[in-house]
């Protein structure tokens, strides 16, 4: 697996390489699958450099909301959407904008680690370059592999076996490899959908530490069912809820500490204290 990563898409156009911390803002997001409305006018600002946790019971639309934030919702044939998503004030759904630009700027890590199992650790990290049409020479790639694996909290564990298959790593290592892979295309936002729910507590802590470090350079949005995790890592929290047969809404959002210590809505209080969900 030493094949060179080659360009399959036009090179990155000038002016689209914005860097620095970015705010993500969802405005009046309503989403449907077929006739079924699953989110109703959800608005949320996810501050630049913050870690925003999306919490709430299963089925209330958290994953759907997350997928809308990087234009993955539209991959579902029956899916529809209204509202706006602004990255640093620019609508990612603007018809003049390319899908690939949204995906490049807004990365995603899933619940189940999904490295390319037969690809080497090194090639896994570099895989996104090919998809986004980014060219790099060998030494640039070497530096990128090291810096992304360091940021992903995996470098010291894998630096002597970069050519070993990604599928040979433990679950927690695979998830950190997926984080490193996301970082290689220098996203401005990282979306994480229950990234630790398949992992043991030790791996979970390593990933949480990694997230806290990463927040210095990328805005993070994480879905979690683990209230301790939300309290440990997030700066802001949004509580989603769907009443029976109704679409999901945000009941309350704000600073994590306030949400946990002094929630304004009784339903938030009941949820964060584990009384339902
Ligand atoms: N691809 C899909 N097709 C149809 N309905 C879906 C699809 N994905 C999710 N849903 C429905 O949308 C609602 C919200 O789901 P989801 O966003 O996965 O919630 P959560 O992540 O909070 O558990 C649920 O009722 C779910 O059944
Ligand atoms: Mg979900």
UniProtKB/TrEMBL annotation:
GO terms for molecular function: ATP binding. Residues 24-272 form the ABC transporter domain. SMART domains: AAA (SM00382). The keyword Transport applies. InterPro entries: AAA+_ATPase (IPR003593), ABC_transporter-like_ATP-bd (IPR003439), ABC_transporter-like_CS (IPR017871), P-loop_NTPase (IPR027417), PstB-like (IPR005670). Pfam families: ABC_tran. Keywords: ATP-binding, Nucleotide-binding, Translocase, Transport. It comes from the Bacteria. This is Phosphate ABC transporter ATP-binding protein. It comes from Nocardioides fonticola.
């Amino acid at each position: 697996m030493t094949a060179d990563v080659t360009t399959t898409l036009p090179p990155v156009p000038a002016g689209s390489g914005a860097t620095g911390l970015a705010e993500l803002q969802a405005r009046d997001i309503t989403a449907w699958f077929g006739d079924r409305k699953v989110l109703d006018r959800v608005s949320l600002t996810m501050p630049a450099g913050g870690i925003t946790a999306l919490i709430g019971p299963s089925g209330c639309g958290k994953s759907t909301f997350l997928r809308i934030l990087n234009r993955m919702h539209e991959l579902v044939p029956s899916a529809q959407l209204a509202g706006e998503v602004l990255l640093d004030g620019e609508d990612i759904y603007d018809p003049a904008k390319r899908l690939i630009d949204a995906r490049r700027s807004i990365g995603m890590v899933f619940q189940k680690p999904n490295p390319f199992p037969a690809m080497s650790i090194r090639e896994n990290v570099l895989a996104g370059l090919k998809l986004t049409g980014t060219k790099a020479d060998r030494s640039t790639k070497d530096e990128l592999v090291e810096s992304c694996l360091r940021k992903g909290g995996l470098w010291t564990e894998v630096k002597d076996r970069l050519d070993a298959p990604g599928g040979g790593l433990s679950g927690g290592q695979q998830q950190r490899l997926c984080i490193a892979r996301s970082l290689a295309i220098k996203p401005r936002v990282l979306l994480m959908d229950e990234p630790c729910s398949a992992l043991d507590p030790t791996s979970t802590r390593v990933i949480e530490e990694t997230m806290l470090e990463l927040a210095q350079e990328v805005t993070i949005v994480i879905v979690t069912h683990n209230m301790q995790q939300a309290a440990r890592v997030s700066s802001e929290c949004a509580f989603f809820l769907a009443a029976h047969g109704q679409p999901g809404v945000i009941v309350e959002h704000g600073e994590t500490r306030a949400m946990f210590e002094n929630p304004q809505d009784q339903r938030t209080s009941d949820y964060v204290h584990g009384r339902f969900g």
